[in-house]
Write a structure and sequence with these properties.
The protein is of the alpha+beta class. It folds into 2 domains: 140 residues, no CATH class; 195 residues, Beta-lactamase, CATH 3.40.710.10. It is built from 12 helices and 10 strands.
Length: 343
């Protein structure tokens, strides 16, 4: 079936109706819930202007039960970078080789900036020759070679995030912040103030937290994080991160116009995470929503940010392992968001 292009005008009309007719909005949310539940959905939450409009849990889903985000975890790194910038520990345009001595004598790696690393355009193979879902240790990622000029190609995968993890770890040690690793820093600087409590977080054989995947949190906590990013990094009237660095999270590169600093931004020309994900194929229709930012993980885990509507939508699902083998399956972001917005 040909997917209908959602116009920005229709999306905005839909949101106006949400404000004016709560009962109609509930009908739309129920339709979106039914669509999600039929596709292994276990949690669905809609938040607008910081207020929860709709919340539902099905099957294994529970309000206080965390769920694996898979690659939805990646977007924490971009916002963490903005906190590091505010603390004077990092600059997005600094060369990684200033901290990672292993990069200094390498023709290509010596030219990589932090922003290149997190935009996934560093020239390093994102997968590092590994199978999908295989996350390297920090040391293994650091040893990954580069044979392309920085900025020349988008390469999705866990390697850049693990390199970033080692870069952050070294900066924390040098600055003597007292944080044992990037996750400890992220928890102290952002999760604790925002009252976000990860249920668990996978670590590698080196004991270091996986930054490209591995976080498990509740739907509400993921929505809190999304609202914080949507609010420009301000919480209770205080900026917890550098505003310019957070804004850079939602700025793309020429190599991939649909990917910011660890966030997806569906639009024409977008290169998705992989041919089976289904994300890139819907980029044009999704661009009709206006501004849309998205954290996405295997199993069709989703955190949607819609700035023009001041709305955050969370969708979590069972079947991560199945999705890693089969791809997106019958899930459609365009169809789901059409139901939510009544477009």
């Amino acid at each position: 079936m040909t997917k209908m292009l959602i116009s920005r005008r229709s999306a905005l009309i839909g949101l106006s109706a949400v404000a004016a007719a709560p009962a109609l909005a509930q009908t739309r949310f129920e339709a979106a819930k039914a669509y999600s539940t039929a596709r292994r959905g276990i949690s669905f939450l809609v938040m607008q202007r910081g207020q929860v409009l709709f919340e539902d849990y099905q099957g294994l889903g529970q309000r206080f039960k965390g769920w694996e985000l898979a690659s939805g975890t990646k977007s924490f790194s971009g916002v963490m970078a903005a906190a590091l910038v505010q603390d004077g520990l990092l600059k997005l345009d600094e060369y990684c080789a200033e901290t990672l001595s292993e990069f200094r004598s390498d023709r290509y790696r010596s030219a990589i900036r932090v922003a290149d690393l997190l935009h996934l355009v560093s020239g390093i193979d994102g997968k590092g020759g590994r199978s999908f879902g295989d996350v390297p240790t920090y040391a293994e990622a650091l040893a990954a070679p580069s044979n392309r000029a920085t900025g020349s190609q988008f390469s999705y995968g866990p390697v850049p995030f693990q390199i970033f993890g080692e870069l952050v770890r070294r900066k924390l040690v040098t600055a003597k912040t007292g944080d044992a690793d990037p996750l400890a820093y992220l928890t102290r600087r952002l999760f604790t103030p925002l009252d976000i409590r990860p249920i668990r977080w996978q670590r590698g054989s080196d004991g270091m937290a996986h930054l490209p995947s591995g976080a498990a949190i509740t739907g509400r906590d993921w929505a809190k994080f999304g609202q914080f990013a949507l609010a420009g990094g301000v919480h209770q009237g205080k900026a917890l991160v550098d505003p310019a660095a957070l804004k850079a999270n939602f700025e793309a590169t020429k190599a991939n116009p649909g990917y910011g600093l660890t966030w997806w931004m569906p639009r024409p020309g977008m290169i998705g995470p992989g041919p089976r994900s289904g994300v890139a194929g819907e980029a044009v229709s999704l661009s009709g929503l206006g501004k849309l930012y998205m954290a996405a993980g295997a199993g069709n885990q989703r955190l949607y940010l819609l700035p023009e509507q001041d709305m955050v939508i969370v969708r979590q699902a069972d079947g991560i392992a199945q999705s890693m083998r089969a791809g997106a399956g019958d899930w459609s972001d365009q169809t789901f968001l059409s139901l939510v917005l009544g477009a």
